[in-house]
Specification:
By secondary structure, the chain is an all-alpha fold. The protein has two domains: about 180 residues, Up-down Bundle (Growth Hormone, Chain: A), CATH 1.20.1250.20; about 180 residues, Up-down Bundle (Growth Hormone, Chain: A). About 80% of the residues lie in helices and about 0% in strands. It is built from 14 helices and no strands. The longest helix is centred in the N-terminal third of the chain and has 32 residues. The radius of gyration is 19 Å and the shape is globular.
C-alpha cells in the first residue's frame, strides 16, 4: 500500500489529462503534416527528429532546473507551455504545424524529469515500481481515450483542426491538478556526485538511447496502417491498440513486483525488437498483423516506462532525482532524434528496412542490460 497514495494519484492524473490532450495531437500530426499539407516522408522524419532532438536538451535542462529551483515550479511551467501543440488547429501549412508542435513537445520534455522526480520524492524505494506503473498506466489511459475520441470524431468527419483546438481543455486541467501536488516545492543546492552506482546508471542511459532508436515515432506505424488500409481512422486506431496495451501492462508490471533488470531486458527491449521485426516482415498481412504488433510494442514501452525510472531512482540520491531523470529523458530523446532521421530515410526506400533498423538497435539495448544482469555487483 502506497503511503502517499493521494500525491501519487495527483501526479498520475495530471499525466492522464496531459495525454488526454496532446496525444490526440501526436496521432494527428503525421496525418496533417504528410497527408493534408503534403510534406514528403523524409521531411516528416526530420521534423520528428527536431522535436526529439531539441527535446533532449530541454529534458536535461528541466531536470537540472527542477533540482535547483523547485521541481513543482518547473513541472508546472513546462506543463502550461505544452498548450502550443493545440495551436496546430490554427496552422495553414506544414511549417506552422511543425513550429507549434515543436514548441509544445519541447516543453513536454522539459517538465517530464521534474515530474518523475516528484514521484520519486513522495515514495519509498520499495514503492517506486508500483508508483511509476500507476503513473504510466494513467498516463497512457489518457492517451488511449484521446485516440478513441479522435478516431470517432474523424469517422464522423469532424474537422481535424477543430479537434486539435479542443485538446487545450484537458491540457489546462492537467496543469491545475499538478498544481495541487504537495511535493517538489524546494530546490536542492547541490546535485553533483549523487549517483551511487555509476556503471549501472550509464549503462541504463546508454540502453535507453539505443531503445530510442527503435522507439520511433508511432507516426510511422500510423502511416503504414493508413497506407495499407486506405483509412486514416484505422491508422489512428493502431495507435489506440498500442496505448491500450501500454496502459494495461504498465499497471500490471507495477503491481507484480517483478525483477527490474530482467523485466526491462526481456519484457521491454526484447519484445520491442520482436515487434519491430514483425512490422518489417508481417505488415503486408494487414490488420491481422498490424494491430497485434502494435499491442506488442505497447507492452515493450510499458516495461521501459515502469522499470527505467525505478532503477534510476534507486541508484540516485534524492537531491539529484531531477537531474538523473533528466539524463534518462535526454538519453531516450537522443536515440529518438537520430532514429527518426534514419527511419524517415529508410522508410522512403522501404518500410522493411526502417523497421529492421529499429529491431537491431532494440537488441543492442537488450544486450546492454543483459550485461548488468550477468555482472550484478559491478558499479
Amino acid at each position: 500500500m502506497l503511503k502517499n497514495r493521494n500525491e501519487v494519484l495527483k501526479i498520475s492524473f495530471s499525466a492522464f489529462f496531459a495525454d488526454l490532450g496532446y496525444q490526440a495531437v501526436v496521432a494527428s500530426f503525421p496525418i496533417i503534416f504528410v497527408l493534408i499539407f503534403k510534406a514528403p516522408i523524409p521531411l516528416y522524419g526530420l521534423a520528428e527528429a527536431l522535436n526529439y532532438g531539441i527535446g533532449t536538451v530541454m529534458a536535461y535542462l528541466g531536470g537540472i532546473a527542477g533540482d535547483k529551483y523547485g521541481r513543482k515550479r518547473i513541472a508546472i511551467l513546462g506543463n502550461i507551455l505544452i498548450l502550443f501543440v493545440s495551436l496546430i488547429g490554427l496552422a495553414g501549412n506544414y511549417i506552422q504545424a511543425l513550429i507549434f508542435f515543436m514548441i509544445g513537445w519541447w516543453f513536454r520534455n522539459f517538465r517530464s524529469p521534474p515530474r518523475r522526480a516528484m514521484m520519486a520524492e513522495v515514495t519509498s524505494p520499495d514503492e517506486r515500481s508500483e508508483a511509476f506503473g500507476i503513473l504510466h498506466s494513467l498516463d497512457i489511459a489518457g492517451a488511449l481515450l484521446a485516440i478513441i475520441y479522435l478516431t470517432v470524431l474523424l469517422y464522423l468527419h469532424v474537422s481535424i483542426f477543430f479537434i486539435l483546438l479542443f485538446t487545450s481543455i484537458p491540457l489546462l486541467m492537467s496543469t491545475i491538478v499538478l498544481s495541487l501536488v504537495n511535493a517538489g516545492k524546494k530546490g536542492e543546492k547541490k546535485t553533483e556526485s549523487k549517483i551511487v552506482q555509476k556503471r549501472v546508471f550509464w549503462t541504463v542511459i546508454l540502453s535507453t538511447m539505443f531503445f530510442g532508436f527503435s522507439q520511433y515515432s508511432f507516426g510511422f506505424p500510423i502511416l503504414t496502417t493508413t497506407e495499407i488500409t486506405g483509412k486514416d481512422y484505422l491508422g489512428v486506431l493502431a495507435y489506440g491498440v498500442f496505448l491500450g496495451a501500454s496502459s494495461l501492462f504498465g499497471y500490471l508490471f507495477g503491481r507484480m513486483k517483478l525483477r527490474e533488470f530482467e523485466s526491462l531486458a526481456f519484457l521491454g527491449y526484447l519484445i520491442g525488437a520482436i515487434g519491430s521485426l514483425g512490422f518489417a516482415y508481417l505488415s503486408g498481412i494487414g490488420l491481422f498483423s498490424l494491430y497485434p504488433l502494435s499491442f506488442l510494442m505497447g507492452i515493450s514501452v510499458a516495461s521501459t516506462e515502469t522499470f527505467e525510472p525505478t532503477i534510476i531512482s534507486k541508484i540516485t540520491k534524492e537531491e539529484a532525482y531531477g537531474t538523473s531523470m533528466g539524463y534518462l529523458s535526454a538519453g531516450r530523446s537522443v536515440g529518438i532524434f537520430l532514429g527518426n532521421v534514419i527511419m524517415g530515410l529508410l522508410y522512403q526506400i522501404s518500410y522493411t528496412y526502417a523497421y529492421l533498423f529499429a529491431a537491431v538497435t532494440s537488441l543492442i539495448s537488450f544486450a546492454l542490460i543483459l550485461s548488468l544482469i550477468m555482472r550484478p555487483n559491478a558499479s
